[in-house]
Amino acid sequence: MILHVLTACSRPQNLERLSAALSDAERHGIALQWHVAFDTNRRYVGGQVIKNQLLEQIAGGWIWICDDDNLPHPDFLPHLPALIRQAEQAGQRAILVGQQRRPNRYLPAVPPRVGYVDAAMLIASRAAIGDHRIPDRYDGDGYWIVTVVNSCETLYVNRPLCYWNAQTWL
What we know:
alpha/beta; Spore Coat Polysaccharide Biosynthesis Protein SpsA, Chain A
């Protein structure tokens, strides 16, 4: 299974920890291709323009956008192949993680609502994403997720599989 991880990076100091968290993907049967593009001057709000540029480079497989302040939950890589198989067998082209852990709470994502979801909560096939792009605004992730999820059959997973803004509190 191919997983493209897209990271718009404005904080290069966070990449080492993110790289370590993704390092055993192969052990779980994941052919991980990590696409990183830098915006250290923070020209683009939320890195949305950069994420869209990275999306343009990918023709197939599954895509997960993991910003440089996010980290995968320890269960993310071990459970992802089974979740993707489950989604594919059911004709689903996207997986929405129903919770994202924040410092003192969990952020619910079902139903997905702008302002309550982050790009790291969605794992989607390239076909599901199609021409949908992230609006160039702070809450663009939320608009993008709602658009993708509403355009295809989606598997909802009600458990945390990622940490939001984790590099500041974990």
